[in-house]
Amino acid sequence: MPSAADIIKDYITEFSRLQDWMLPIKEAAPETYASMYKRYIELKVTLSSLGVSLTELDRIKE
Predict the structure, then answer these.
(1) Cα 21 from Cα 50, distance rounded (Å)
(2) What is the pTM of this model?
(3) Phi, psi of 23, deg, nearest 5
(4) Which residues of 3-39 are buried (b: 16+ CB within 10 A; e: fewer)?
(5) Are the C-beta atoms of residues 19 and 56 closer than 8 Å to each other?
(6) CB neighbour list of residue 59: distance below 8 Å, 6 or more residues apart
(7) How far apart are the first and last CA of the chain?
(8) 48: Cα separation from own chain's centroid
(9) Per-residue pLDDT tens for 7-54?
(10) How far is residue 11's CA from residue 8's CA, in Å, rounded to a whole number?
């Protein structure tokens, strides 16, 4: 079973990668962006509930 630290690390990595994909696609494929945005919110809520400060990690400004 993964430790809490491993879970947090994996979620932070996913959160960062997702933002990397979201930023350039926003204008080109709005429907895809909207789908990705749902996952972005899920990860953001989960990481916040785990006590992770997203101040430095969050690059999506909406």
Answers:
(1) 24
(2) 0.89
(3) -55, -50
(4) eeeeebeebbebbeebbeebeeeeeeeeeebeebbee
(5) no
(6) 19, 23
(7) 36
(8) 11
(9) 999 999 999 999 999 999 999 999 999 999 999 999 999 999 999 999
(10) 5
